[in-house]
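quick one before i forget lol
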Amino acid sequence: QKIYMSHTTESNFSSGVKPDPSNMTLVYDGSITWESGWTVITLSTPFSYNNVDNLLIYYENRAGSYTSDYPEWYYTSKANRAAYKRYDWGFPTGDGTVCDLVPNVRLYPPPCLEVEKKVYNGTAWVDEITDAELNNTYRFRINITSNCCDFANVTVNDTLSSSLTYAGSAIPSEPASLGGNKYQWTFPTLNKGQTITIEFDAVASSYGYDCNVANVTANCTDDGVIYSVNDTACLNIVPPANRFDEVWNNTMDPNSNIFPLTDDVNDIATTNASADLDSDGIPEIVAVDEDGNVTVYENTGDNSYTSVWQNDTSNIVGDWPYMLSVCVCDLDDNGRREIVTGDDIGNVLIFEWDGTSNNYTLVAQHDFGSGKIEDLCCDDMDGDGEQELGIAFSSSAYIYNVSSGWAWPWNQEFGYNVGSQVFSLLCGCDLDNNGSEEFIFGAYNDNIFIYESTGPNTYTQRWNKQLSSWAYPYAMACCNMDQDANGYQELYVGDSYGQLFVITNTGDLTACSDSLIHDYGDAINGMCCGNEDNDTMNDLYLAMDDDNVHDLEFFGSDVTDYSHYKESIIGHDLNPGYNNAEAVHCTDLDGDGKREVIAGYEGSSGDPMLFVLEHRMPCLDIQKTVYDPVTGRWVDNRISGTKGETYRFRISITSNCCNFTNVTVNDTLSPSLEYANAATRPPSQQIGNFVQWTFDKLNKSETKTIEFNATVIECGYDCNLANVTANCTDTGNWCSAEDTACIDTKCPDLIVDWGFILNYDCTSLSSEDTFFGPEPCPGARTQCNNISARVKENAWVNVTDPFNVTFEVNGNEICSARIPNLTAGQYSPFIHCDCNFTPYAGIRYNLSVTVDADNEIKETNENNNIGWKNRTAKVLGYKGDGWQDCRNITNVITPKRGHVELQYAVCDHVSWINETGTHYLPTGDTYLSIVGGSWPNYYLNNMTVYRGEWNKTMLPIPSGATIKEARLYVYYTWSMHITGFWSSGYPYGYGTYPNFNMSFNGGANVTIDNVDGNYTDRKGFGSYDYPA
C-alpha cells in the first residue's frame, strides 16, 4: 500500500487522468490493517503543508489481485472530488473515472512538544511487555521532540512503578533522584525539529502490572507558552507458569475392579487427617458420578490412593439417578462426619461412618420432588454452634438444621424461590470481614444473591444482581478468598458461557461491585480458590469445557483486570476421549507439604476420570546467567555490553526428581559473541559458537556448574541459549531444559541534525528556510543554493568506522561527504554542499540528507537516517545576478556619444563626523551607524555625517581630456533615528532615510532632489520587506 501527497491549486478533477507519483511525495509505503471505525496511518515520511494550496492524495493498493477483505469507507459526497481505477487481476493501468464519493479523511499535525516512552523487549522498542520476568533488567527509552518551536528549560520527570528499581546505565547522563522512584533530567534547550533521547535501565523487582510515566515540561521561547506532555511504557512482571503433574488417577486404584467409577465425575469433596470420615487419621477423597456412585478413596502413601467404599445405588429412591453434588459435614455434631450427596431427581442422601472399618450407612434421605440438587454446602452460618446444610434444589435455595434428628422434616432456617434453577452455593463466607457469615447462591441468567446471617436462624439479603448481559447463562461455580489482601474477600463466579466474574466489596455488602475478568467461551463447570503451589500468590482453579483445568494466579493489584493474573494450564486434556473437566477441588491429601488439585472429568467405565495433580518443580533444571561487572552480580537475563570486552557466563544444571545419566549441555552463542575459552570444565567439542559439555551422571538434588568467557565482537541485543538433555534412570525417560542469558551491546544511532540549513552563507536567506532562483525563462541567470548539514550520534555509542553522508534533490544525488568517525552523543562538523543545486522559482523540490547512505554502520534504528525539506523555490534578488522575474535587463544610462571608455574609482578615505569632530577610518572597511562601546552603550555614538572623498590621484584625468560626464552611485537603506531608550537598554525611535549632498570639483552642492535617478530594490517576501 502506497500513499502520495502533493500541493495543488486545483479544486476538483476535470478528468480521471492518474497523477504522476514522481511529482508527489511518497508519505507511506507499507501494509495497512483496516479497522472498524477510523484507521490511523502514521506517515513514514512527513509532509510539510504550505498553508495555502489544496492537497492531492493518491493511494495505491498493490495487493496483486482481488481479495474479499477490501475495506468499505465512509464517504462524503462532493462533486468531482475523487477519481479511481480498479482491476481485479493486478495493479490497474491507464486513466480512471471521476466520481463524487470522497472517502472521509482526517489529517493530524504532530503535537508541538512530543514525548514517547518505550521499553525494549529484546527485538524492538514497544509500549508494553506483557511477560516480563522477575529480577530481569529492562531498558527504557524516552524521546522528546519539538515540532513547532524552540524550547528552553526542558524538564523530564520519569516516575517508575513500585515493581521496578532504577538500575542506572543512563544516557546522556544519570538523572537526579527526586525520591519516591522519581528521576529527573534537565536540558537548557530543545530546538525546533530536534529530538533528545534518554535511556536507562530498571530491574523488575516485584510482580505486578504497572505503567511508568514520563512527563516533559518546556517553555516555548517563540510565544512564552509552557507545554507539558506525558507518555507511558508498561511492564507486566508475571510469575512463571505453574506446573502441576498428574501423580494419580482412578485407573491406578488397586480396588478399581471392586469400586469402579463408571460415568462422568460431577463433584468432589475431601477430608483432612484431623477431621476425616472414619476417625483413622487418613484423609479421603469422595467422588460422585453420573451412574449414582458415591466412592470413597483413602490415601495410602505419597501420591497413592485406594477406593475403600462405594454406596449401594439400589437404595436410592427413583429411576437410576445420577449424582450431581457432594459435601462433607458434621450436621449432628457427633464427631463423625457425614457424606451428603444430591442427585438429578431431587434426592438428598446422607451417609455416616458406622464405626466399622471403611463402612458408611445411609442415615437420612429426602426426596424434594422433581428437580435437580445442583449443589450442596454446610457450615455453622448463623453462629449458633450447629452446622447448617445448604441445598440448591430446582429454583430454590434452602438452609436446613438437622439437630433434631435425621427424620424428615428438618428444621428449615431459610428458603428463597428464585424463579429459575439455582446452580451453585457457598456457605460460611465472610466477604465483608464483619464476623457474620454469608450464604451465597447463583442461578439462571447469572443471577447472584448474597444473604448475611443477622442472628440465629435469621438471614438478610445484602446484594442481588444479574451479572451477565447475555441471555440464559448459568452461574455454575463460585468460590471466595481475599485475593488482594485488602481485608475483604472477593467472590468469583464462573458461568456456562465461560464468563469469569469477580464481586468486590469494601465492607458494605449492599454496595458490592461486579466486573467481568475474562470471557473464555467455554463453560466453567467447577471452581476452587487456593494456593496449591505454596507461594505468596493466591490462585483460582477452573474446571472447564475446553478439556482443561486452568490455574489463574493473581500477582498484580487489580482483581478485576485479567492482565493481573498469570494463567497456566495444569490439567491439559487429561481424558482425551471426552471434552469436559467437570469438577475441581483444592487440598493437601497426602501430608507431604505439596498441595494437590483434585479434578473430575467426563468418562465411562475403565476411563481415567478422577485425577490428583500436584505442584512440581521441573525435574531437570538449567539456569544460564552472565556476570555484570557494573553491579557485581550474576544476571539472569541481560547486561549492557561493550564491543571488544570479554564477559563471563555461568550454566548451572540441577536434578530435582531423579538420577540422570548421559547428560549433555549445548551452548550456542549469538553472532555478536565469540567463545573465549577459560572454561571451568573443558568442553567436549567446540565448533564456532557452538560449545558442548558432557557428564556421565547427575544425581538427584545435585547441581553441576560450568563457567566460560565470551568476547563481544559486534553490537546487538542477543540472547544466548543453553540446553541440557539427560536420561532419568528411575523412569527411563529423556528430559530436557533450556535457558538464556543476554548481552545488550548497544549499536550507535546516526541521525541528521535538526538544523541542516538552506543558503547558510546568507543569514537573511537561511532564516527563510527555502530555496531561491529565477523564474524559468530563456536566459534566466541561475544561482547557487548552498546547503549545510551535520549529523549526530544519538545513542551514546562511539562510531569507529567511516560512513557516507549524501545530499539528494528529487532523488538525484548532488554531493556526498565521507565522515571518518563520530564520538558518542556528539555532532559532526558542518558538511557543506555548495554550488551543486540551482533551482528555479515556483518549482517544488524535495531535498534529503542521508547519513550512512550505504548502510556501512549497524545501528539501533535504521529508519531515522534521513532528514528532508520539501520547499517551493522563491524569486529573490539577494543572491541574484540580474532581474529574477524574467524582465529584460535594461541599461541604466546610455552614453550620448556611443561607446566610451569608463573608469571607476573608490574613494581614498572615509570619515564620520559627530559632535566630537571628524574621525577618519581605513579605506575598504564597512561602517554602520552603531559604532563603538558595548551593550547598551554602543548606541550612544550616533553618527551625524558619513563622508567619502576622492582626489585626482584616485581618478586621473588624461592630459588634455575634458570631463564630459561624471556619475556617482550611492547605495543606501533606511536607518533608525534614536529618540530614547527603554529600561532594558534597547533604543526606540523611528525609521528615516539619510539626506545626501555632493559637490564635484569644487562646484555647488547637489542634493537628493537633484539626482538623475533613484532606484529601489526589495526582497519581495517575508518580514522586513523594505525598499533599499
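fyi The radius of gyration is 44 Å.
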